[in-house]
Design goal:
By secondary structure, the protein is of the alpha/beta class. 39% of the residues lie in helices and 14% in strands. It has a six-stranded parallel sheet with strand order 2-1-3-4-5-6, sandwiched between helices. A six-stranded parallel sheet has the order 9-8-7-10-11-12, with helices on both faces. Helix 5 links the parallel strand 7 and strand 8.
């Protein structure tokens, strides 16, 4: 982390490691000095942002002392709970501090100078919104070769080429059931057999015990399998699997995991984790937001119900549920990603997607530099 007496950028980190990683990657990409303000929140953060205004009363009492002048030129945050705090900083700076948010703020879009998001959040097109193809990867700029040396012992006795299988698991909308895990294990085994190689596997905190066991029971190729556990510590070989692989299979539940796979620079195959059964409210919301987006795309005048939905969305009161297919399907259609069973023959598609991610990041960085001027 780069720090000086009065750095031009503050990043508001918090409890979510993934969000913190994206904040650091963006701040480092700017090449400007920045400082982290690690903020925790009380239970009032759950209230809608439209009710919280620009205030610190949702910030836990301890971290409030971190909010002291001189105020930065830019505050970068992620996650809806940070929005009132960054707006408070802007108010104390008499409007001089500019606001940059990663993800979806669940607040009025026009409160922010820049929002950097990804397609699964379904934010509308606005002049102050930049959409990246994939989230900012924590592996950007990280050298993986030392990880290959650290973990090379796990491939001893295994024939190449090596395929690494990165497994996520259940989310609010998706569920890696035992049946789908069986299908994944069989498809991954067939993929490896066709190449005459071996398989490296790692599960994650979101992989259920039943899915994990079902997958392991059907893998019938030479393999090294790491089962995630809370006390695993630095024994988790995820970075080693990325470094040692000749190609990767990744489940579709995690945009961050897909981004890490692309940064690793190997051919990537996707396995679609199925939707949860039920989810009627979510399906209903998707239906109405699909209609709203169609109206906006066609620049047609919406009827009253859709105008109301648009107003509620723009206030941050009603948000479209996250939908991973909005991120994945366009990339598959462009042949930048391939589904398991329909793989790319080389790394051309991965290289093209990685270059696109870098280009969009460069656009975002240029906008941030413009805000500093």
């Amino acid at each position: 982390m780069m720090i000086k007496t009065n750095p031009p950028i503050w990043i508001l980190t918090g409890a979510r490691a993934g969000d913190n990683a994206q904040l650091r990657v963006l701040a480092e990409a700017t090449g400007l000095e920045f400082v982290e303000k690690n903020i925790s929140y009380n239970k009032l953060y759950k209230l809608p942002n439209v009710l919280k205004g620009q205030a610190l009363w949702t910030v836990a009492s301890g971290p409030r002392h971190l909010m002291q002048p001189p105020w930065p030129k830019i505050v970068i945050s992620s996650g809806r709970r940070s929005v009132p705090a960054m707006r408070w900083i802007q108010a104390r700076s008499q409007g001089a501090t500019r606001l940059v948010h990663i993800g979806r703020p669940r607040a009025q879009f026009n409160l922010f100078d820049l929002i950097i998001t990804t397609p699964q959040y379904r934010l509308p097109n606005r002049p102050n919104i930049i959409k990246l193809p994939l989230p900012l990867s924590r592996l950007r700029g990280v050298e993986l070769e030392p990880e290959a040396d650290k973990w090379r012992h796990i491939v001893e006795g295994l024939n190449g080429p090596i395929t690494s299988l990165l497994i996520g698991g259940d989310t609010n909308a998706l569920e890696l059931t035992a049946a789908s895990a069986v299908r994944l294990g069989r498809c991954a085994s067939a993929h490896v057999k066709a190449k005459g190689g071996s398989l490296l596997v790692t599960t994650s905190p979101r992989t259920s015990v039943h899915a994990e066991q079902a997958l392991c029971d059907v893998i019938d190729v030479p393999a090294h399998i790491y089962r995630w556990s809370e006390d695993g510590g630095d024994k988790n070989p995820l970075l080693g699997l990325l470094a040692l692989a000749d190609d990767l299979i990744v489940t579709s539940d995690s945009a961050s995991m897909l981004s890490d796979a692309v940064i690793a620079g190997k051919p990537v195959s996707l396995f679609d984790v199925p939707l949860r059964s039920g989810r009627f409210t979510e399906k209903w919301l998707h239906k109405w937001f699909d209609r709203l987006e169609a109206e906006e795309s066609a620049e047609r005048q919406s009827w009253f119900g859709l105008r109301t939905l648009r107003a509620l969305r723009d206030l941050g009161l009603v948000n479209p549920p996250r939908r991973m297919t909005d991120l994945i399907n366009p990339l598959v259609e462009e042949k930048l990603f391939y589904r398991l069973g329909d793989e790319a023959k080389d790394i051309t598609s991965t290289s093209m997607l990685k270059a696109r991610c870098e280009d969009r990041l460069a656009q975002a960085v240029a906008r941030i530099h413009g805000l500093c001027d």
